[in-house]
Amino acid sequence: MNNVFVYCELEGTKVADVSLELLTKGRKLANQLNCQLEAILAGEHLAGVEAQVLPYGVDRVHVFDAPGLFPYTSLPHADILINLFKEEQPQICLMGATVIGRDLGPRVSSALTSGLTADCTALEIGSHEDKKAGKSYENLLYQIRPAFGGNIVATIVNPEHRPQMATVREGVMKKEVLDPNYQGEVICHEVAKYVPETDFVVKVIDRHVEQAKHNLKGAPIVVAGGYGMGSKEGFDMLFELAKELHAEVGASRAAVDAGFCEHDRQIGQTGVTVRPKLYIACGISGQIQHIAGMQDAGIIISVNNDPNAPINTIADYVINGSVEEVIPKMIKYYKKNSK
Amino acid sequence: MSLRIIVLAKQVPDTRNVGKDAMTAEGTVNRAALPAIFNPEDLNALEQALRLKESHPGSTVTLLTMGPGRAAEIIREGLYRGADGGYLLTDRAFAGADTLATSYALATAIKKIGAYDIILGGRQAIDGDTAQVGPQVAEKLGLPQITYTEEILKVDEEARRITAKRHIDGGVETVEGPLPILLTVNGSAAPCRPRNAKLVMKYKRAMGAQEKAAPACHGEKTLAYPELYEQRPYLNIQEWSVKDVEGDLQQCGLSGSPTKVKAVQNIVFQAKESKTLTGSDQDVEALIVELLANHTIG
Ligand SMILES: Cc1cc2nc3c(=O)[nH]c(=O)nc-3n(C[C@H](O)[C@H](O)[C@H](O)COP(=O)(O)OP(=O)(O)OC[C@H]3O[C@@H](n4cnc5c(N)ncnc54)[C@H](O)[C@@H]3O)c2cc1C
Ligand SMILES: Cc1cc2nc3c(=O)[nH]c(=O)nc-3n(C[C@H](O)[C@H](O)[C@H](O)COP(=O)(O)OP(=O)(O)OC[C@H]3O[C@@H](n4cnc5c(N)ncnc54)[C@H](O)[C@@H]3O)c2cc1C
Fold this sequence. Notes:
The structure holds 2 protein chains of 2 kinds. Chain A is of the alpha/beta class. Chain A is built from 7 helices and 18 strands. Chain A has 2 domains: 4-201, Rossmann fold, CATH 3.40.50; 221-337, TPP-binding domain (Rossmann fold, 3-Layer(aba) Sandwich), CATH 3.40.50. Chain A is globular. Chain B has a single domain (4-256), classed as HUPs (Rossmann fold), CATH 3.40.50. At the A-B interface, helix 2, helix 3, strand 7, strand 8 and strand 9 of A face helix 3, helix 4, strand 7, strand 8 and strand 9 of B. Bound molecules: flavin-adenine dinucleotide (2 copies). One flavin-adenine dinucleotide binds next to helix 5, helix 6, strand 17 and helix 7 of chain A.
C-alpha cells in the first residue's frame, strides 16, 4: 500500500527506455519515502518480461497479459490502472510523457480525481505549507515542469489527492541498473477482473513503427558541432558531453560534409529542425541555413574562438574560447556540480 | 443523416513570440503583453470538423470555449470559417482551474449542449502545455478517445464508426472506433482554412453579453446598432455560467483542482541580451552552476 508505481510501456515485449529511466527515479523516491517500488506491465506474451525491470530495484511487478492489450489502446490500459490503484492506493504514479503516457495519464487521473503534472523535468520530495488553510504537508512530490512555451518553470504539488501523478519525457532521467539480481515479487493478474469486454471498442487496424537511431528531433538538449570541431575525434568529445547532459548530438552541414558526423544528425534547412530547450553550438559559425533549423531553441550557448561569429548574435551565452579547451571543462564542471 | 460535431477551442496568449516585456518585474507572466490567439492545434481540429461538415451534408459544427468575456473572439473566428454556432463558458468560479477542473467544466457544458456524435479538440494548448484536457473530457463523458489524430479518414454513419490516422512514437497508426467519440488533433494535421469574407461580413458584430456590455473594448463609446441583436439572433454569442450548466462549485476552478502551483520561476533569459564569457575555469563552472540551478540541465 501507498507505494511508488511506474507504468511501463511496451513495444511488443520490450520495455521502453523511458520506463526504465522512471524506475530508476522511482527507486530513489521510494528510498526517500521508505516505501516500495512497483511496476505495471500490460501487453501480450509477457512471460519472463519481468526480468527487464527487476534489476532497477522493483519490489513488485504487476503483469497483465491478455490478447488485445498490445498494441496499446486507451480504455483497457486505463481500466487496469484505475482498478489496480483503487486496490493498491499508490502515493505516486509515474509514466512516460510519450504518446501513450499522455493518452493514458489524463484518463486515469480524471477517473480517480487525482492531479496529474505533465512533462516534468525534475521530481523531488519536499514539504508544503498551505497558509490559507493553515495546513502543512510532509513528503510531497514536487513536480517541476516548464510551461508557457518553455518560458517559465513551475513547481506543482498535489497536497490532498492520491496518487500524485506525473509524466516525464524520455531522456530526462538517468537509467541505472541497481542490482542485476534484485529479487521482487511477480503478480500475474486476471485481466478480465480489471478490464470489461466493452473496453475493446477501438481497434488498431494498421501500424508502422520505425526504430529510431536517435531522438534528435525531440531532444530537450542538443549539443551540436560544426566544422570548428576539427575532426571525428573532436565529435567524440561532444558525444561525451551529450551523454552527461542526456542530450543528443547534432551537426552543421560543413561538419557532416567533412565526415565528422553522420548525415542523419544534420540540423538546418536541409536537415532536421530542432526546438530543444537548450542548444549548445560548438564551432558553428551560424550561417542562415543552419540557423533555420535551430532558431526556436529556448537557450542558445555558442562556443567559438571567433568573437564575431554570426551565431553569437542569436546566442544567450557566448563563450569566447576554443572547443578543445571549453568542452572538457563543461564535462568536468557538470560532473562536479550535478548530483 | 448527419453529424453533430463539437469543437473545443481555447484562447491562449501567444507564447511562441515572447519578447522582453512578456514577464513582469515580479517574474509573473505579463498576459497583456502577449496577443491572445486561437490555440494553434484547435484550428487544426476545427478544420477536421469543417471537412466532415462538407462531406456529410446537414452536419453542424458547434464551438465550445471556456475563458473570460473576450474569449468570444474564439467563437467569432469559428463562425468566420464556417462553424454554425458556439458557446462561451464564462464565470469567475471557473478561474484558477487545473486540467481536471477545466475538463469537468467543459464536460458539464457538453452535456448541456446535448446530443453529439464527435467531439474534437486540439492535442495541446500552448500556454498550459499539458495535452491533458482532451482525454479527461472523454473520461468524464464516458467516451472512447483517439489522441494525436493526423486525419479523419472516414465516418460511416450507418455503422456509426470512425476511422482515423494518428501519430504514435516513431510511427503512425490507423484506428477505428465507435461514435460518439472524442478526438484530439495534432499540429501536423491539415492547416485550417482562412476566414471566409462573406461570413466575416455576416458575423463581425457577433458578440457575447460581456462584450456588448463593455463597448470600450471594441473601440466604441456605446454599443453601435443595439437593435441588430434582436433582429438577428445569430449575432448573440451565448454565454454560460456555472449555474447555467448546473455545475458543482466544488469541482470548478481552484477548489476543483488537485494540483497547486507552489512556485513559478521565470526563465526568459533577458530575451537575447547575450552574456559573453571566457573559456576560463571560473566562467565555465559559473555557467554550469547557473544552468543547473534553473533546471535547464538536470
Ligand atoms: C542550399 C543550401 C542548404 C544548406 N543547408 C544547410 C543545413 O541544412 N545545415 C547546415 O548546417 N548548413 C547548411 N548549408 C551550409 C551553410 O551555408 C554553411 O556552410 C554551414 O552551416 C557551415 O557550417 P559550420 O558553421 O560548421 O562551418 P564554418 O562556417 O566553417 O564555421 C566554423 C566555425 O567554427 C569556429 N571554429 C574553428 N575552430 C574552432 C575552435 N578550435 N574552437 C572554437 N571554434 C572554432 C570558427 O570560428 C567558425 O565560426 C547549406 C548551404 C546551402 C547553399
Ligand atoms: C505554469 C502552469 C503549469 C500548469 N501545469 C499543470 C499541470 O501540470 N497539470 C494540470 O492539471 N494543470 C496545469 N496547469 C493548469 C492548466 O494550464 C489549465 O488547467 C488549463 O485550463 C488547461 O490546460 P492546458 O492549457 O494544458 O490545455 P491542454 O490540455 O493542453 O489542451 C488540450 C485541448 O483541450 C481543449 N481545451 C483546453 N482548455 C480549454 C478551454 N479553456 N476551453 C475550451 N477548450 C479547451 C482544447 O481543444 C485544447 O487544445 C498549469 C498552469 C500553469 C499556468
